[in-house]
């Protein structure tokens, strides 16, 4: 299990213990699907106020290192513990890109929780200015124009380390031509606190 924190200094990062609690919430949300238990949301009064506060997150699932589901939100609308619970279940069973997770896959399942900082509007006048900024800051990016939006988590930099390739792929995800840019494009950036762990934790 590994934990990485890259939230901005003005917003304290969640510590390892708190991220471990979120990972446990995701495990339980997935587990309840395969049991007779009702899929009850987390009981808020059992958690620290930081975890009860509204928060945005993504939950990413991999089976044998292959993506199995990834859903989340960039807007903090629900208490973080509730959001993690809901997005874990959504990623496992509602991501339309993949078949629903099966019980046979649980042995090889890895869960990654990414808690987002509040996205901040980045003032750039051109795509060139954006690329210059991203050369120095490998952050998460949200591109919006009218009703179209696309998001890449900071983890995408591992596969697309070149800013030009990163933004082209993000525009393609939004359904735009790869050479598209206009004064109506809005850019927001964010960082994350993340933790990754296996579904089945090893015995001590």
TrEMBL record:
InterPro entries: AMMECR1 (IPR023473), AMMECR1_dom_sf (IPR036071), AMMECR1_domain (IPR002733), AMMECR1_N (IPR027485), AmmeMemoSam_A (IPR027623). It holds the Pfam family AMMECR1. SUPFAM superfamilies: AMMECR1-like (SSF143447). Residues 17-204 form the AMMECR1 domain. NCBIfam families: AmmeMemoSam_A. This is AMMECR1 domain-containing protein. It comes from Photobacterium galatheae. The lineage of its organism: Bacteria, Pseudomonadati, Pseudomonadota, Gammaproteobacteria, Vibrionales.
């Amino acid at each position: 299990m590994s934990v990485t924190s890259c939230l901005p200094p003005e917003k304290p990062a969640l510590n390892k213990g708190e991220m471990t609690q979120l990972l446990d919430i995701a495990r339980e949300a997935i587990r309840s699907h395969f049991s007779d238990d009702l899929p009850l949301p987390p009981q808020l009064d059992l958690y620290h106020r930081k975890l009860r506060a509204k928060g945005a997150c993504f939950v990413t699932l991999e089976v044998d290192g292959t993506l199995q589901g990834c859903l989340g939100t960039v807007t903090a609308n629900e208490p973080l513990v509730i959001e993690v619970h809901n997005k874990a279940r959504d990623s496992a069973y509602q991501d339309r890109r993949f078949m629903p997770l099966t019980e046979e896959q649980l042995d090889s399942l890895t869960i990654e929780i990414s808690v987002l900082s509040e996205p901040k509007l980045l003032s750039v006048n051109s795509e060139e200015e954006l690329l210059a900024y991203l050369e120095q800051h490998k952050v998460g990016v949200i591109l919006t124009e009218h009703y179209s939006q696309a998001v890449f988590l900071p983890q995408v930099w591992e596969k697309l380390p070149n800013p030009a390739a990163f933004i082209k792929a993000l525009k393609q995800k939004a359904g735009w031509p790869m050479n598209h840019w206009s004064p109506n494009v809005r850019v927001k950036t964010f960082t994350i606190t993340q933790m990754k762990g296996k579904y089945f934790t090893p015995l001590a």
